[in-house]
Amino acid sequence: MFDRVWTDAHLCTMVPRGDDPLGVVEDGAIAAKDGRIAWVGPRADLPGDAAETTRCDGAWITPGLIDCHTHLVFAGDRAREFELRLQGASYEEIALAGGGILSTVRATRAAGEDALVAAALPRLDLLLAEGVTTVEVKSGYGLDLATEPRMLRAARRLPALRRVEVATSLLAAHAVPPEFAGRRADFARLVAEEIVPAIAADGLADAVDAFTDAAIGFTPEETALVFDAAHRAGLPVKLHADQLRDDGGAALAARHGALSADHIEYANAEGIAAMARAGTVGVLLPGAFYFIRETRQPDIAAMRAAGLRIALATDLNPGSCPAPSLLLMLNMGCTLFRLTVAEALAGVTRHAAAALGLRDRGALAPGLRCDLALHAISRPAELCYWIGRNPCIGRVVAGR
Ligand code: DI6
Ligand code: FE
């Protein structure tokens, strides 16, 4: 006896079969038991009964969507900076003048944990309304021993307030805080020697992230210090890599066995191949590319040639992507980067799970968590096609 069955639905299982990368099952059914998927297949073959049956009226069911890169928790906004950019200032110039990430650091340090939770919730609700069931949340607007844990604690409170799973990443090496101005290497040592161990001891992070960038982030050597500390603490690593120039970030991430390297517009073909060999997922963030009017396209051809797993995420943050919509990223991934529909959908399901090191979700298959998104669409491509229209009609998290 199953706990629950969904029928009269078409399934986009994301388990590739033959020449069908989406693993479509028309007129299918899914059965759940104890929060896991117990059975998936054509409705006519459904074995056994269920305590509860939900008829889906021909809707499509995908795995619950996974936003594997967000900066969801922050205080304030950067609309003023947006105006400055409209007058000609670049993202990098604003950052070097003490604005940018540091302006959000000032606002976030001044906010209490409750205020951070309250600010994050409406943004989270917009993601969930589109069918997101797992969201990654980074710190990185605290940059000190008081505020980085506060951001992560705020993120960890969200699943008690909404039905969602949250994965947290410590991004203390995001920018150099004002009290370390001119002493970037000293701050990198503080992150490696004090912040990473403290966060790990409190169990507040699932991974450690960093921003490698020659002008406004950290050098590859400083990043390596932070990554070594993460490895000592038993935490996997991720990297903001090659966003504004080729810093060798892709190869650096691969060398450290990173779960993912994100942005990678400027990553070179050797770095991309190294990522593929290391099993590092490439996370594309087309919303940030769009919003800061980046012109360098990520090398999708090299990624395909290397067999790189590609994920897509919002990068939801106040500076480079104030867009709480993973559906918009599906569209932008296809329109701006010319991903196929199948690549884009894998990017917010199977490959997004891999970017978080989560093996228990991202597809519709027996044994995986029963995290589903239901959509009123007539074919999967509609998820990538609409702009600003949300066809999601339901979510299931762990079978509920
Ligand atoms: N790259 C990004 O896109 C975000 N962080 C980063 O290193 C943007 C963060 C921000 O501008 O607030
Ligand atoms: Fe980011």
Structural commentary:
Strands 3-2-1-4-13-14 form a 6-stranded mixed beta sheet, with no helix packed on it. A 4-stranded parallel beta sheet has the order 5-6-7-8. A 4-stranded parallel beta sheet has the order 9-10-11-12. The protein is 36% helix and 22% strand. It folds into 2 domains: 98 residues, Urease, subunit C, domain 1 (Roll); 291 residues, Metal-dependent hydrolases (TIM Barrel, Alpha-Beta Barrel). By secondary structure, it is α/β, with parallel strands linked by helices. The chain starts with a strand and ends with a strand. The site of fe (iii) ion (FE) has 5 residues, from loops.
Q: Which structural class should the secondary elements be placed in?
A: alpha/beta
Q: What is the average of the pLDDT values?
A: 97
Bound molecules: 3-[(4S)-2,5-dioxoimidazolidin-4-yl]propanoic acid, fe (iii) ion
Order of helices and strands: EEEEEHHHHEHEHEHEHEHEHHEHHHEHE
What do we call the CATH homologous superfamily of the largest domain? Metal-dependent hydrolases
Number of helices, where a helix is a run of at least 4 consecutive DSSP H or I residues = 15
**DSSP strand count:** 14
Low-pLDDT stretches are none
